[in-house]
Amino acid sequence: METKTKIKIGISLGDFNGIGPEVILKTLADNRILNFCNPIIYGSGPLVNKMRKSLGLENFSFQQYKTAEAVENKRVNVINCWDEDYELTLGKPTPESGRAALQSLQAACQDLKNGFIDGLVTAPIDKDNIQADEFKFPGHTEYLTSFFDSPESLMFLVSEKLRVATVTGHISLKEVPQKLTPELLIVKLSLLLNSLRKDFGIQKPRIAVLGLNPHAGEKGLLGREEEEIIIPAINQLKNKGHLVFGPFPADGFFGTANYHQVDAVLAMYHDQGLIPFKTLAFETGVNFTAGLPIVRTSPDHGTAYDIAGKNLARETSFREALFLACDIIRKRQLVPVSPI
């Protein structure tokens, strides 16, 4: 369906020696995508052409531009972010692929800040290979939070079966207990509540909060974080009328599929939330950065160097990330929601 306000989705290339370009091109090779969004790849025409040929996508066509302001509907558009003729070394990170990943991300973010595109889908980066003077962050989430001057953000994994957010993100496990405070939990729960209302249209969301310790601390026997940090934060939001429940022991909660009874789950740390999520929705799950003034999604997988260049990567998660970005942009445009 053609519309005058077709959504412009910027796509950062990620590490081009991983599977990012492959899942991007496989997704956009389905021309039906062009009926509801205007995809804009931030990379380079020569590189996209090399990938097109390596994947055997002979009918895949695109238009090259220097700026997103000039892009066309009904076409795959490529913004040339560099002049160098970077060489593909599929399956292996190189200094060039790290530098290009940053150039792509910077250009897309600047266009998003300037309003030239409506949202961003990021292909996987190599978190070590992208490190530079301009990128000293553990991942996309932290970079975007800083770039868009947001005080906080929330890693939010989304699928049809399950939605999981995390209080802490890309930090070592030993740092997690020191990071947890009632104030931080209230901030993250508020971001999650607001996102469920604003981005997913759930007016009275139900949230389950997981404990940090085995058996959710067993009333303090196995740790005091539940009694001193998590329960006070839950009670504060309950007293305001929000449907927040817990803390639940993580193993039993997922083992008995209690996530079906709520709209989202808040985990205390990265792997506590992502292991069950990826077990249930690895090929269809999407990573959404909630709490930002812009819309950013990504597939829920990494660079997968081990299969890069073998034409084995499945584009399902990237396609779902593109769809979710469009859905959230539309919801934000149509139904403004005041924060709690």
Automatic annotation (TrEMBL):
<keyword id="KW-0560">Oxidoreductase</keyword>
<dbReference type="GO" id="GO:0016491">
    <property type="term" value="F:oxidoreductase activity"/>
</dbReference>
<dbReference type="GO" id="GO:0051287">
    <property type="term" value="F:NAD binding"/>
</dbReference>
<dbReference type="Pfam" id="PF04166">
    <property type="entry name" value="PdxA"/>
</dbReference>
<keyword id="KW-0479">Metal-binding</keyword>
<protein>
    <submittedName>
        <fullName>4-hydroxythreonine-4-phosphate dehydrogenase</fullName>
    </submittedName>
</protein>
<dbReference type="GO" id="GO:0046872">
    <property type="term" value="F:metal ion binding"/>
</dbReference>
<dbReference type="InterPro" id="IPR005255">
    <property type="entry name" value="PdxA_fam"/>
</dbReference>
<keyword id="KW-0520">NAD</keyword>
